[in-house]
Amino acid sequence: MAKKPLKVGFDLDGVILYNPVRVLRPVSAFLSKILFHKKQTSFYIPKTPFEKFIWYLLHKSSFVPARGLSNLRKLVQEGRIEAHLVTGRYASLSSDFNSWMKSIDAEHLFASQSHNAKNEQPHIFKQNMIKKLGLDVFVEDNWDIVKELKIQTRPKIFWITNFLDRRIAHEHKFANLRGVIKQLSELTK
Length: 189
Known about the structure:
This protein is of the alpha/beta class. It has one domain (6-187): Rossmann fold, CATH 3.40.50. It has helices at residues 25-36, 49-59, 69-77, 94-103, 122-133, 143-152, 177-187; strands at residues 6-10, 17-18, 64-65, 81-90, 112-116, 137-140, 156-160, 173-174. It is globular and about 50 Å long.
């Protein structure tokens, strides 16, 4: 009897797409707590055309596929994992999301591709999709979301960290997508 593939969800920006600006996440989180007195995890949702344009520009920092994407394709083709893409990108980024899906040939890589078209809080959207899809593992690069998912969901949360967050302890922490793929290869032998 063939072994059932591991169901793995992947975030887009900072995981499937390389994003060097994600190193600023701890600075942004700190400033949000100071300036807006944030006590719980929440993310700003752009509303005006100008804010949506700024969000569009910010997401242009995800400008190339991450190294390791070809290794992910191999795991999928071998039937060792069933890959799903789950991104918190808001509705205003739908056209850019669709463009990336074509560019990386997502149709042949991911069993499903979901983005946050209803503008939910990204961590809540991801929690709901993880449960809906019955994922065994979810790969995320944003520590604030990782913290929420660890509490609210069942699967293992693999975290792609960055230079400024590297001292934060987490059981499944990786420097990049290639490290994640290596671990998934081990898990699916």
